[in-house]
Predict the structure.
Amino acid sequence: MPNPTGTEVPDIEGIVLEPDSAGYDAARSVWNAMIDRRPAMIAQCRSSRDVAKALVFARQNDYPVSIRGGGHNVAGHAVCDGGVMIDLRRMRGVSVDADARIARVAGGATWGDVDAASQAHGLATPGGLISDTGVAGLTLSGGMGWLRSRHGLCIDNMIGVEIVTSDGEIRRANEQENADLFWAVRGGGGNFGVITEFEFRLHPLGPEVMFCAPIYALECGAGPIRAWRDFLADKSDRISSIVEFSTVAESEDFPPEFWGKQVYTIAAVYAGDAGEGERIMQPLRELAPLVTDFSGRLPYCELQKLFDELMPAGHYRCYWKSLYLAGLTDEVIDHILEGVTTVPSPNSLSSIWNFGGATAEPAAEATAFGDRSMPWMYSIDSVWEGADNDEANIGWTRDFWQRLQKYSHEGRMYLNFPGGGEEGEKQLEDTYGADNFRRLREIKAKYDPDNRFRFNQNIRPAQVGGQ
Ligand SMILES: Cc1cc2nc3c(=O)[nH]c(=O)nc-3n(C[C@H](O)[C@H](O)[C@H](O)COP(=O)(O)OP(=O)(O)OC[C@H]3O[C@@H](n4cnc5c(N)ncnc54)[C@H](O)[C@@H]3O)c2cc1C
């Protein structure tokens, strides 16, 4: 292919961009506006063969490799300085076998692509909460969305992948073929190769679902949150829910007397008949005087786009961090309610997520993700404008997260909301569990011995005979 600089580039069907190519800057930008990295080369691949060629090129020239799916990784792992960035945005096809209830999803697809193709057949698979998040990055570290209580994490619905490993081999991985690799990619992130195709199990759903979204003023205090917690105790097999803390924007969607005030939304989705969901979730809408109530029945594809506007790509600077909670006692709720009052940015969100149901079913060793007994998660999604505000917002998030550690579920966090990964390998070992982490390092040594894929929650290859 033509090469503006005259240096050797991989001969791919897609496009190769170098720092002086038109389109280079747009291609290296990602969702978090803070990320400003400059790859030596961007390979915009069109096929698995393209990916294989780019990886062979990287190995021959000793470049590290980053992988860009949807570009939503808040730590910006999709882009690297000085390496090869494999950009999968041109690989977004989704095909659905409605009889077999399977979706085949290309490695650069977004959840919006998957939902549209699946819902055309009245089917769905668990995804995330925002339609333009990449399927790949979200899935490979677990994947949590509105269907998790009924159908589990995204990895629990993944039945196979096509993956290109660092040696340029195109392989299939499922329960029968390369089963070690299949185990590792169900939680192990982008450490093991470039996934060029996912196969997901689909479930009948919709088209209409019930979304519950009453909004209460923060000054209502802990009462509605305690009631929400107790309400979910026997319903965690059907209802996926979050309590989301936010600051009201100056918008005609809200009564003016609440503009600029802090609130929380009790957001919940019933994975089943919309009418039944409306009846069952009604008590969540009557827990205190309302600021407003966005509840209603709506098509599943619309639900999946509902929060997109809040999270525009490339606009905000962001730092997100999470921890699993051992329990949601009154003390924990009070601590969170007190903590959010000092949030520096009105654009920031934070959420308590429920688990249980199908999420809790797989054994810790069944997938790389690890133990499923965490009952709750708290994620602090700090979002702000202006580089001058970086220190205040990152510092506040880290400080709040540290103070909550005493309530943590065995020091574990959701690796898709890891902040900058500052805690390093110890955090990974705690999160995966020692046995899973050891196994991940051995599988890494087999498929990526040179740690070519290191822009991620990095799992270093095990060394022969020990560390
Ligand atoms: C607005 C927003 C909403 C979010 N909502 C949710 C949510 O509801 N639920 C949830 O669980 N998470 C959510 N997340 C977190 C999200 O799962 C992670 O940020 C994830 O990394 C995004 O995946 P991506 O493909 O878009 O990211 P990218 O930045 O493109 O990729 C992230 C990393 O994933 C790996 N990767 C990407 N593509 C491939 C591939 N094809 N093969 C191998 N590795 C690959 C690479 O290691 C890469 O560095 C959200 C994030 C944002 C910004």
Summary: Residues 30-31, 66-74, 77-78, 88, 107, 128-130, 133-134, 136-138, 140, 143-145, 189-190, 194-195, 311, 416, 455-456 surround flavin-adenine dinucleotide (CB under 6 Å).
